[in-house]
Each structure stands twice: as C-alpha cells, then as structure tokens.
Amino acid sequence: MKFSVVVCSFNRSASLRRMLKSLQEMVIPDHLSCEIIVVDNHSDDDTRLVFEEIEKHFKSEIRYVFEDRKGLSHARNRGVKEASGEIIAFTDDDVIVDKHWIQNIDKAFKEYDDVACVGGKILPIWESPKPKWLKPDLYGYLALLDKGDSAAYMDALDIWGANFAVKSEMFKRYGLFDTNLGRMPAKLYSGEEAEFLLKLQNADEKILYYPLSIIHHNIPAYRMSKKYLRKWRFDRGEQEGILMEDTKYSDIMNYHSRTTGIMLLRHVIVSLLKIGCFTKDRFNHELRICHILGFLSGRMKRKLIKS
Fold first, then answer.
1. 83 Cβ contact list (under 8 Å, min separation 6)
2. Given its phi and psi angles, is residue 176 left (phi above 0), alpha (psi -120 to 50 degrees) or beta?
C-alpha cells in the first residue's frame, strides 16, 4: 500500500520545519511506502529553503511543488494531482503528527475496508498559557477535534481538514476540492473538505473517525485571543453571505437566506442585551454579532460582484 501525504504551506516556514521533522520521525512499516508532497502555496518567505534543508535528511520520498494560485483548495488540488498513492492523507503545516499516524490510518482502512475516508483526533499544543475564558465549546474555532476513544462512522461535517485521509479513487469519482471554498491569504474562509466529504456521503460512501489517527495542532498566542475568534466568525459569516445564492453550499453554510432583515435585527438586539447583562455566555453572543455583521458584509460584496 502506498500513501501520499499532502502538506500545504503558506508563509509558515518555521512551523513547516517542525512539521516535516515530525513526518521524518514517523514509523513506516515495511509493507507500506510513503511519499511526502509539500505544496508551497505562493509563499514569499524562506519556505523553499527550509524544504531543501530538510529534504537532505529525509528517508522517505519527498517532493516540493509550487502552486501559484493562492488558496488552500488550489493547493490541495495540486497535491491530489501530484499524488501517486492509493491513499492520500492531508494535514497542515502547523501540526506535529504522531509517529504512528500513517501506520494507524493504514490499520483503519484495513479494519474498516468499506470506508472511503478516515479522520482522527486533532489535539492542542498550547504555545502559551491558555486563557481561562477559552473553554472547550470554543475549541472548534482552533481546529481541535476529539470525538472520544472509539472508532465510529461519522457525518461528513465531523471530520476536519488537518487530519483526514481519502482513497485516491474518490477524487477520480467525485472530483476535486471546490476552489470557491477554503482558506485565503487574508480570510479565514473554510468548508472545502466538508463540501468534498458531503459529496462522498451523499453517494453513500462511508466516513470513519479513528481515534488512533492523531495529530497535534500548534496553537500560538494570537489564536488564543478574542480578536482572532471575532475575525473567524466575521469571515465565516461573510463567506455565507457571498455564497448564499448558491444552493449547493446550503449543507455546509448556516445560511440566513430565510431570515428577514427584522429577524437579523432581533438577533443583534438579543445578543447586545445578553452582552450588557454580563451573562456566562456573553462572548458567544458577541461572536454571534460578528457573524451577522460578516454575513451582511458578504451580501454587500455579492451585490458588488453581480453589478
């Protein structure tokens, strides 16, 4: 069995160095082969130099490709096109993989031979002390995932992009990642893996959560800030506003398409009152307002695009 590991990177050479070293330390059993594909998504830092330095010491096959179209979906699609493995595993440049990561993904596909996709745990590495207000209900904004210690078939929306592997034939059967979705250099947009996995799910392909598939996500101090979470919710709302008229995205976006202006205003007023009353979930209501403001910004951008 051959695995292709796709790592997309944009201007995070220091993180990429740590990430590639963790891949270098992975245990690859004799019955498996593994290629590493680093997709440089038009970085302007020393990403290429870091790769060339690490490449010299790599035992597994490792390749560098440059994707000049910015955006995570473009980078992932390039990785898929470059991959030659039967299984394509995706992860990010700011993670540390467990040394048995690939070995356990292989076990998952063998134990559950009917699955098309395997996802797993995304556990935190807090790079500075975690603030007290940052509770587990907010961990999703930091791309952290822990569904427990039992393997289970999962919904497409319960598997996240920093840790998932797909049979390569699925891309031939259902197409690539939608380039209207996914991270952009200045925007925390998302949804490209969810949209792809929903295509699999709607075609009755099975998706598995496998708890032994583990990666550790570095969480820097700036992500543990209310400013970052506000931007995350604003950008998510903006993306929804831009894409609202495209019904194919309705399953991955919490559309306000059936929400009138009066209802949106009501949501804002209720959230403002909750904030003013200093309730325990005060910050969640603040995030809700950020989401609505982002949504309205997206609707305006959509109108400008159409005009």
1. 4, 6, 35, 37, 168
2. beta
pLDDT tens, residue order, the chain (307 aa): 899 999 999 999 999 999 999 999 999 999 999 999 999 999 999 999 999 999 998 988 999 999 999 999 999 999 999 999 999 999 999 999 999 999 999 999 999 999 999 999 999 999 999 999 999 999 999 999 999 999 999 999 899 999 999 999 999 999 999 998 877 777 877 788 888 999 999 999 999 999 999 999 999 999 999 999 999 999 988 888 888 776 667 666 654 444 545 555 665 666 565 555 555 678 888 898 888 888 888 888 877 656 5
User: For residues 214 and 145, what is the distance between their CA atoms, to the nearest angstrom?
Assistant: 10
- Under DSSP, the state recorded for 60 is S
Q: Which residue is listed with tokens 């699999």?
A: 200
Give the separation between CA 155 and CA 42, rounded to whole angstroms: 33
Block residue for tokens 């309730």: 279
As its CATH architecture, domain 2-223 has Alpha-Beta Complex (3.90)
Report the C-alpha gap between 110 and 65 in whole angstroms. 30
Domain with CATH 3.90.550.10 in the chain: 2-223
Which three-class secondary structure state does DSSP give residue 293?
Answer: helix
Half-sphere exposure of residue 102: CA atoms within 13 angstroms, side-chain side: 28
DSSP 52: H
Concatenated DSSP letters of 87-135: EEEEEETTEEE-TTHHHHHHHHHHHTTTEEEEEEEEEEEESSPPPTT--
Q: Give which of 190, 204, 192 is closest to 236, Cα–Cα.
A: 190
| Residues whose CB is less than 8 angstroms from the CB of residue 183 and which lie 6 or more positions away in sequence, other chains included | 71, 72, 189, 190
Q: Cα separation of 205 and 197, whole Å?
A: 9
Phi, psi of 213 (to 5 degrees): -85, 100
Q: What is the DSSP letter of 184?
A: B
Question: pTM of the prediction?
Answer: 0.88
Separation CA 45–CA 49 (nearest Å): 9
